[in-house]
Amino acid sequence: MSNPHEEKTSGMPVRRTIVAVTVFYALVLALNAVALHESIERQPFGPARTFWLSVTGPPAAASRALRLDRPREFVNKTLGSRINH
User: Fold this and answer.
1) What is the C-alpha separation between 21 and 51, in angstroms, rounded?
2) CA distances for 57 relative to 3, 19, 25, 51, angstroms
3) How do residues 5-57 score in pLDDT, each as one tens digit?
4) What span, in angstroms and rounded, lies between the C-alpha atoms of 16 and 53?
5) What's the pLDDT tens digit per position in 54-69?
6) Domain boundaries, the chain
């Protein structure tokens, strides 16, 4: 006999979803950290800029060291003018 408190669920388990979303955002940050950091450098001086520069500095340095910024540079060089207008 089945457990009356057991519910049938559909879809992905919550833990698996959280891991997938975390991996996605980590990958996005790794591939775009340099561009994000450069964008923040162009912001007006102030406490928010200082905070975000300190937050994005280490990922940007790691991205440069691991050459994870190369795919973005390639896309900007080959398709940049077509997709940025």
Assistant:
1) 25
2) 53, 24, 17, 10
3) 666 666 778 999 999 999 999 999 988 999 899 999 999 999 999 999 999 99
4) 31
5) 999 999 999 999 999 8
6) 34-80
